[in-house]
Amino acid sequence: MTDFVTHVRSRLREDRELVFLRDDGTPVRLGFPELDRRARATAVWLARHGLTDRPVLLLYPAGLDFTVAFLGCLYARVPAIPAPLPDTGAPHANRVRALMGDAGARMVLTDAAHAPGLSDLSARVADPGTADPDAWTPPAMTADTLAYLQYTSGSTSDPRGVEISHGNLLHNLELFRLLARERPVRRLAGWLPHYHDMGLVGLQLQALHAGADLVFMSPAAFVARPVRWLELISRYGADWTVSPDFGYAWCTRRITDEQLAGLDLSTLTMAISGAEPIRAGTLAEFERRFAPAGFRPATWCPGYGLAECTLMVTCVPQGQGVTVREFDPAALELHRAVPAPGGTPLVACGPPSGLDLRIVDPHGLGPVPDGEIGEIWVAGPSVALGYRGRPAETRATFPADGSARHGRWLRTGDLGFLLDGQLYVTGRIKDVIVVNGRNLYPQDLEEAAARANPGAGRGAAFGVRGGDGGEHVVLVQEVRMRQPATLGETADRVMDRLTREFGVPLSLLLVTRGTVRQTTSGKLRRRHMRELFLGGGLTPLHAELAPALRGLPETVA
After folding, report:
1. Which pLDDT tens digit goes with each residue over 377-428?
2. Domain with CATH 3.40.50.980 in the chain
3. In the CATH hierarchy, which top-level class contains the domain 323-429?
4. Percent of the chain with pLDDT over 70
């Protein structure tokens, strides 16, 4: 089969269903045959409006209406653009218009409840009830047909529309299927947003591709009460779930002993963790906390991926469990991975499988041997077609090369190394802080700060060039307390620990919870925080700045 629609329609079994749990706890069910009927009706409606091969923006709340609309777009050969439902107000509408302009979309689809609030965008409701599903005729599609546009979440740059073909999607979902080995997935459970690649491909489309049940909820409901996610797994006997590191950490911190007593996680065979960085501490703490509920260490399946490769690049197969190794921090600063007990712990993200993967010197562009850190390059059928309407960026990120499968490599912009057949991810090229010739990884600084102040929230570390011409480390750290004396003590603890561990001067800003921005997948927006710092867009509760940085941001001068 060369297209996703043909494959999915062969998997639509009577006994499979999608279950969406509303925020009030009420389940809404949609069987696969009815999903197919509504998708065909939606496709007829789209074709009637002349939208074949024309991108359409989907602005839906979490729920089944999005799934019907997205699948209807695929059935109609209409490239869908999943995007977050905007808040009310002109700035949000302007952002939506900018995205539509970038993609060349001329129509917005939404549900009936939100159409009035999106009237200034001329949003439409694709009502499957007004079209005859039996009038649907499958359009001609091949592996190269554009399926949808996945807009990047903006952690490192302005969002760009990644063009995903039917062939890309089928190949990547097949990689997921192969992870299961002899135990194919029966039921997935999760909370990730449908407009993010992990939620779209890793949950919704994976369920359709595998012919498995899906039970899911809104991200807002999960954040407000994280036990709901684990209750879904427990109540419905889910065997697969997918989440960034943040989700597992949030459960560990917020689920009470009383809530834990009612959980049964013994049915889980795969718990995929895929957002960067995957913290060894998060996995260990979740294991300890939920072992009484039946969670097994072998359930962990850490992985690495990105939208430009549809989703997954590598992932630990089912049953293998997590591998955590410790490395000499001084060697890591020199871009070498030297195992050392008591060093920096890194989580293995699985072996390359079904894709070509090489580690490349980002400057000389030549491959480096195992154990040396370089840029992660990927080639194979999952690698996307390119960026919508951005030929120069496409050529730079997807360089043509006769050594690559299908003639192109994907330059991920991420740093990592291969060791004993597994990929370890160390950070992003643009995030690395170079101080006096040393390469410092921001996540190492952030984790050290968290150890110094366990009650803290998120932290974001980045480099700033000071008035003396040198590179300086800045850490923006969330805290709960507001008393000046307590803040001063907290700042001292954090700065003392980082100075001892890394031997570099540190500028520290303590800020209120919620200040440090992240993407929808939980990735820190370090470059955005750097821009806020330099532009005077941060109002700290307490600040300790190196002399060379005083006067840069107006709010802390």
Report:
1. 999 999 999 999 999 999 999 998 877 777 899 999 999 999 999 999 998 8
2. 1-9+28-141
3. mainly beta
4. 95
Neighbour tally for 339: CB within 10 Å: 14
> The tokens of 179 are what?
């992870």
User: Can you tell me which residue has the tokens 């990105």?
Assistant: 306
d(CA 325, CA 56): 45
**From the CA atom positions of the chain, what is the Rg in Å?**
24
> How many C-beta atoms lie closer than 10 Å to residue 483's C-beta?
10
Question: HEC profile for 126-170?
Answer: CCHHHCCHHHCCCCCCCCCCEEEEEECCCCCCCCCEEEEEHHHHH
Helix (H, G, I), strand (E, B), or coil: what is residue 170? helix
Q: Which of 527, 524, 529 shows the shortest CA–CA distance to 279?
A: 524
Q: What angle do CA 153, 526, 502 make, to 5 degrees?
A: 145
When the pLDDT of each residue in the chain is averaged and rounded to a whole number, the result is 91
- Range list of β-strands (E), 266-409: 270-273, 300-305, 312-315, 324-327, 344-347, 356-360, 374-379, 386-387
In the chain, the amino acid numbered 94 is N
What's the pLDDT score for residue 261?
96
The listed CATH number (1.10.3210.10, 3.30.300.30, 3.40.50.1240, 3.60.15.10) that belongs to domain 433-556: 3.30.300.30
Q: What is the pLDDT of residues 82-137, one digit of tens each?
A: 999 987 655 567 778 888 999 999 899 999 999 998 988 889 999 888 899 999 99
Look at residue 547 and tell me whether its pLDDT is greater than 60.
yes
Task: Please list, in sequence order, all residues whose beta carbon lies within 8 angstroms of the beta carbon of residue 486, skipping any fewer than 6 positions away.
Answer: none
Architecture in CATH for domain 1-9+28-141: 3-Layer(aba) Sandwich (3.40)
Predicted local distance difference test score (pLDDT) of residue 430? 87
